[in-house]
Write a structure and sequence with these properties.
Layout lengths: L2 E6 L9 H14 L12 E7 L11 E8 L4 E7 L10 H23 L5 H11 L9
Parallel strand pairs: 1-2, 2-4
Antiparallel strand pairs: 3-4
Helix pairs in contact: 1-2, 2-3
Length: 138
């Protein structure tokens, strides 16, 4: 797969958080799309969610480009998760918004490096797994 999602969890108690459950759900949804042609192409985008705890939290806010492995064609982007998102009812939407932001940042990075990256197809993957808003019928 070319779109990877993972998390850094400094405290195992966070395994039960709404955010960790949302990350797990989105990762499972992405795995279900492994047969999509875009998921078989390089480069790889690896988005790492950095969950905060009392003992440890990211020393930045938002997203940052962590590293690029040229041999493996893998860009790692880290997302510093705000504490308020841990138990939020909007956790899944947050995870998907971070993925969309990461795809956008990856598109800029790969463009600058002159590496082909199909941002539109990656945005489409995120859109496919996004929960559809339900509207009331009046």
């Amino acid at each position: 797969m070319t779109l990877h999602i993972s998390s850094m969890i400094p405290d195992r108690a966070l395994d039960e958080s709404a955010l960790f459950k949302a990350i797990t759900k989105v990762a499972i949804d992405l795995a279900g799309l492994a047969a999509q042609p875009i998921q078989k192409k390089l480069p790889i985008l690896n988005v790492v969610f950095m969950l905060p705890s009392r003992q440890e939290k990211a020393d930045f806010e938002g997203l940052r480009l962590h590293s690029f492995d040229n041999s493996g064609q893998t860009l790692r982007i880290e997302a510093a998760v705000p504490e308020k998102m841990l138990m939020s009812s909007h956790a899944e939407r947050y995870v998907l918004a971070i993925l969309a932001d990461a795809v956008d940042a990856a598109g800029e990075f790969f463009n600058e490096q002159r590496i082909l990256f199909d941002a539109a197809a990656h945005f489409a993957l995120v859109d496919v797994i996004s929960p559809k808003q339900q509207q009331a019928i009046h």
